[in-house]
Amino acid sequence: MNRVRSGVRRALLAALPFVAAAIAVLAQAAPAHADFRVCNATQNLVGVGIGYRAKAGWITEGWWHIEASSCKTLIEGPLSSRFYYLYAEDAERGGRWDGPINMCVAEKEFKIAGVTDCVARGFQRAGFQEYDTGEQSSWMVQLTEQPATEGASASGTNGQ
């Protein structure tokens, strides 16, 4: 009887890596959930801040540090607003992806309520780019670099 148990135990232990691999493959094959992602297609580290309208009013938050050639999810789950605002800085070369919508940011990690009187409240003001998600549940922005004469650009797409 002990030999049978020992053999069963050995067979189960031998099968564990295969079961774990199968679970990992199934997890990757599952449909992507809705979220707001930013992908950094540059060769430099990028710091990103996001702004959006919440039930209680305007919120800006950051910094997400996104390594070169990688993506990060800034908002998990289905998007609750139609418009999102993004500001990003190249941490190594100093360039930025910005726009005409002024919102508040801070030197360190931040979550700021309100977008007015930034300096008077001890924050900095930065120009954010607006992204109209068209009420999609998922969205992705890709930060890219262009030749120095054209500056840097960002594009947003439906993430589905």
TrEMBL record:
One Pfam family linked to the record: DUF1036
Top-level taxonomy: Bacteria, Pseudomonadati, Pseudomonadota, Alphaproteobacteria, Hyphomicrobiales
Name this protein carries in UniProt: Membrane protein
Keywords, comma-separated and alphabetical: Signal
Leader sequence segment: 1-29
